[in-house]
Amino acid sequence: MRRLDVSLRTPRSFVAIWGRPRVGKSRVLIEWGRRNSALYTVADQSSAAIQRHYFASAIGTRVVGFEDVEYPNWQTLFDRLDHESAGLDWHGPLIIDEFPYLIAADAEFLATLQKWLDSPSRRSSVIVSGSSIRVMKNALLNQDSPLYGRTTEAFPLGPLRPGHLTEVFPNKSHRELVSTYAVFGSIPHYLELSEPYSENLVDAVDTLILDPKGPLHREPDRILEQEIPNATSLRPILDAIGNGAHKVSEIAGSLVRQASGLAAPLAALMEMDLIRRETPFGSDPKSGKRSLYQISDPFLRFWFRVVAPNRSLLASAPREARLLCWERHRSQLETYAWEELSRMATPHLHRVLPELAERGPFSVAQRYWYRNDHELDLVARSLSGPEILLGEAKWRISEQDRIGEGIRIGSLPIGQAPVIPLVFTPDAHNETSENVVDARMVLEALR
């Protein structure tokens, strides 16, 4: 919202934001628009003529009689808007939500919009937003697009920082917050739905997701259906990754397809922020030989591991049987979520751990794996010194474990750099050790 405020200081600004469904784009724009007397419009999947009628009706709430005219094309509508804006001395901002639907409805819309944005008669600042990330990026960042280079501000809107889970669920322990993150991630809409069940994660999981009547039971299908063009053809790849196929060869084998034919669909899913490609520390990020593909969002990981393979059973199973589908995978999902949060927190740990204050900040943490080497959950370089931070994330620690010891380096490519070993465990341990990071510290770093 601060970035949107700054954008208004530039007359006739053109701003764009994008992000996956449910991340809160509309909520942000509506809340910000109320504070800035903005005119908010939202597109849908209607024809171009219907879209103009709806658009004119929204403007009519600010300009009397604007909707009483039938506009044969967008240029006519924009010309009238400029004329009325001059008479009212109105400078916007004009918010156009679900912008990709306007592009899909009229092949000439982008060219017309570009002409209007460049017109000296335009007075209003304009903000566009969309959930179809591929369409938004293509319209704004593709050099062949009429809108290329015309934004004064353009950025993606991501999920909440996981540290804010402490505000959504103030009565949960920090371990419980990690368990909640392993199911719902930090997508605002999912957290909003789960908030009434804050005292009982089991009830939230069953009522919202596992129960076929739950509002999130078919959520991934809706996300793919809302993409422009429809992305349901990419669903099998998500199923394969969700069931444990992470290498290109494994995904291809699961789908009985040639690995060479997966480059484009994998790139599309990454562009939609539904999957990410991981490379081990020290490897060439451009090389795909050791790459692994992971589902980006914890909720989608949960859904493709628990719900997708059991849709038939969940359709008629009682509550106890539904919950067993989750319990079989719960520990694995929570372990991965804890590892993910630990890596996310690493670049910020110097702010919460006094012993790291002069050694940080650290680079983005990566996993390390190579042949038969011992795998490491996170490796990161200090950006202010020679140190290398090595960490293992343990969701549960047994009495036999020696905290902070036993991190094996193997052939990790770090040369003679001094090593900072850390163990990440959700619960504060009885031992006093400066190399132990618990869930409270991780979530504090992620605020």
Description:
Helix 9 packs across helix 18. 42% of the residues lie in helices and 12% in strands. The chain has three domains: 155 residues, Rossmann fold, CATH 3.40.50.300; 172 residues, Orthogonal Bundle (Arc Repressor Mutant, subunit A); 104 residues, no CATH class. The strands form three sheets. The protein has a five-stranded parallel β-sheet with strand order 2-3-4-1-5, with helices on both faces. A five-stranded mixed β-sheet has the order 8-9-10-11-12. The protein has a two-stranded antiparallel ribbon with strand order 6-7. By secondary structure, it is of the alpha/beta class. It is globular, with a radius of gyration of 25 Å.
Blueprint of the fold:
Elements (H helix, E strand, L loop, with lengths): L1 H6 L6 E5 L6 H11 L3 E4 L5 H13 L13 H15 L5 E4 L1 H7 L3 H10 L7 E5 L2 H9 L11 E4 L8 H4 L5 H11 L3 H7 L6 H10 L8 H8 L8 H8 L5 H8 L7 H9 L3 E4 L13 E4 L2 H10 L3 H6 L2 H27 L20 E3 L7 E6 L6 E6 L25 E6 L11 E2 L1 H7 L2
Parallel strand pairs: 1-4, 1-5, 2-3, 3-4, 10-11, 11-12
Antiparallel strand pairs: 6-7, 8-9, 9-10
Helix pairs in contact: 4-6, 9-16, 9-18, 13-14, 13-16, 16-18
